[in-house]
Amino acid sequence: MLSQIKGLHHVTSLASSASGNNAFFTDVLGLRRVKKTVNFDAPDVYHLYYGDEVGSPGTVMTYFPFPHAARGRRGIGEVGTTRFTIPVGSSNSWAERLAAHGVEAVETGELFGARQVGFDGPDGDRFALVEGEDDRAPWTGNGVSEDTAIRGFHSVELRLKEAGAQGELLRYMGYEEVGRDGGLIRYAVPGGNEANVVDIEERSDLGPAGQGAGSVHHVAFAVENRARQLEVREALMDTGFQVTPVIDRDYFWAIYFRTPGGVLFEVATNEPGFDRDEDRDHLGEALKLPSQHEHLRSALEKHLEPIGQ
Predict the structure, then answer these.
(1) What is the phi/psi pair of residue 171, to 5°?
(2) Please, what is the end-to-end C-alpha distance for the chain in angstroms?
(3) Which GO molecular function annotation, any one, does this entry have (predicted)?
(4) How far apart are CA 284 and CA 249, in angstroms?
(5) Which of 61, 256, 275, 297 maximizes the CB count within 10 A of its CB?
(6) In whole angstroms, what separates CA 254 from the centre of its chain?
(7) Mean pLDDT of the 7-22 span
(8) Fold category of 8-303 in CATH
(9) What is the pLDDT of residues 114-123, one digit of tens each?
């Protein structure tokens, strides 16, 4: 069993509009845009990162906004819900705020004994804000007060045909089953970071998911550094998984592998961080390009949709 993985690092999804996506996560949810860069494999498309003040591991939601992309098809083999932690007692305030901003499918409820408010993002992606004790410092620069602001990820919920093989993988990754609620099975990393929960929902009644706007592309898990990442890579390959070579993503190093349930997992390093090429006071303001795409800057700045600060 692995001990290097501490919980979530980031979650990356697809969107249909850069400006709409940016407005939702900064103006509505109150997160900070910590990086404005481009897709390594499709540089004519943004890669936008939202999180706390510095984009700490376990707080960062990222998006590839492909203009006018069709919505994804909900189904099995994908992340059904991405959850963030909010302070205890703040879910009603959030429900009112979301409704006031015209957010769709807002509903309050309880899961595993915690109050939460669920809602849809601009492309139908499903989110929830879960009340809980969380010592992480929030970003409050976008008009959301400290006593309600999002602290970072709480969990991801995997929607799968069957839970057995995926649960076995999570246990190998250092997770333990910690509870069940209705059709959900909850796993957590003992002593992990504050974003150390993964839920599995079995849905044999659904067909396969189809990726599009609103779909989660991959879920990334956090390791301290490159040495720990290489240990994880070797262990996964010894277990029979097909794992990519280590890829430099400028702000972290990444490896990827496909899980038994069909969801793409990444293992990402906590180093070097999003302030490696920008001052912390100005994170996410300038367009930062990977070195291999720097020669395209003039064309990209004309092509990419303006999204403001």
Answers:
(1) -65, -40
(2) 44
(3) dioxygenase activity
(4) 16
(5) 61
(6) 14
(7) 98
(8) 2,3-Dihydroxybiphenyl 1,2-Dioxygenase; domain 1 (3.10.180)
(9) 999 999 999 9
C-beta separation of 155 from 144 below 8 A: no
Q: Are 163 and 202 in contact (CB under 8 A)?
A: yes
Domain locations in the chain as residue ranges: 8-303
> Which single residue is written with the structure tokens 């929030």?
138
Write down the residue that tokens 């979301």 correspond to. 98
Global confidence as pTM = 0.97
- Residues 195, 7: contact at Cβ < 8 Å? yes
Phi-psi region of 198 (alpha: psi -120 to 50; beta: other; left: phi over 0): beta
41-90: pLDDT as tens digits: 999 999 999 999 999 999 999 999 999 999 999 999 999 999 999 999 99
Assigned token pair, 170: 């999570």
Amino acid identity of residue 174, one-letter, is G
- Residue 150 contacts by C-beta under 8 Å, 6 or more apart in sequence? 29, 30, 31, 84, 85, 86, 129, 138, 139, 144
pLDDT score at 135: 95
Contact 309, 286 (CB under 8 A): no
